[in-house]
Write a structure and sequence with these properties.
Layout lengths: L23 H15 L5 E5 L7 H4 L3 E4 L5 H11 L4 E7 H7 L1 H10 L4 E6 L29 H4 L5 H6 L4 E8 L3 H19 L4 E7 L3 H4 L3 H15 L3 E5 L4
Parallel strand pairs: 1-2, 1-3, 3-4, 4-6, 5-6
Antiparallel strand pairs: 5-7
């Protein structure tokens, strides 16, 4: 019988440690599939920051640099400038990229650094206890907002795909979701496009992936995916926000 589905070569043959229903494994596979499609595994450098993204080295069969909290775009900039022949991507969560790392992502994008950024948005600090993140939704209860996020006091959630799309250095910016087979297939297409832009030296590319976090949301995996559908996607609309190839 012909095998039609297997592990991408860019992923190590290891068991996942992520919580049941977590979408990090899905994103990992989609990124790995993109690396395989372009045949760039041996040329790729991944840059992980602090949070659930820190385990990148345990799953990807590529060189990985661990960066301080929020500094992955700065570290990736150094790696790419030192080795412009390499494909460099960061893998970051919302508590990392949109909080302590906001300065780094804004300036790397504005400079048009030729890197690819994979941004997993699950509206919470997933690893450290479910605290309120810059993307936590209005009214969402977390360990540090037990009565729900108060927009008047805490501000509104950042919409990173839209925010970065306004910068001249950005070549591609899109938001995808991982809550259904249809959306996963679309995410696969967008992630492939983001890496293709780097392969073609078109500049900075950014993918925001809406993900569930059943553990910190206090939900089972099915309900968590439904929350992405019912609450997150209406607030964080899916789509391409900038594509210089269409300009």
């Amino acid at each position: 019988m012909k095998q039609v589905f297997n592990r991408p070569e860019s992923l190590k043959d290891v068991s996942t440690h992520f919580c049941p229903g977590c979408n990090h494994g899905t994103v990992h596979r989609l990124v790995a599939e993109a690396l395989d499609v372009f045949g760039i595994r041996s040329e790729t450098i991944g840059v992980a920051s602090v949070g659930c993204s820190v385990f990148l080295y345990g799953y990807f069969d590529v060189d990985v640099i661990e960066s301080p909290h929020g500094r992955a775009p700065a570290v990736a900039t150094g790696a790419k400038r030192a080795r412009p022949d390499r494909i460099v991507f960061t893998y970051q969560g919302d508590g990392d990229l949109a909080a302590i790392g906001m300065s780094e992502i804004i300036h790397a994008a504005n400079r048009g650094e030729d890197i690819t950024v994979i941004f997993v948005n699950n509206t919470t600090y997933g690893m450290t206890g479910g605290q309120m993140a810059p993307t936590t939704m209005p009214g969402q209860k977390t360990s540090t907002s037990p009565y729900g996020r108060d927009v008047k006091k805490d501000g509104a959630p950042f919409k990173m795909a839209e925010l970065l799309s306004g910068l001249e250095g950005v070549a591609f910016s899109a938001r995808v979701a991982l809550n259904s087979p249809k959306n996963v297939l679309q995410a696969k297409k967008m992630i492939k496009t983001a890496f293709r832009y780097q392969v073609e030296k078109k500049g900075f590319s950014f993918i925001e992936a809406l993900s569930s976090c059943p553990t910190n949301w206090g939900m089972n995996p099915l309900d968590a995916n439904q929350r992405v559908t019912d609450e997150m996607i209406p607030y964080f609309p899916l789509g391409v926000y900038k594509n210089t190839a269409n300009l």
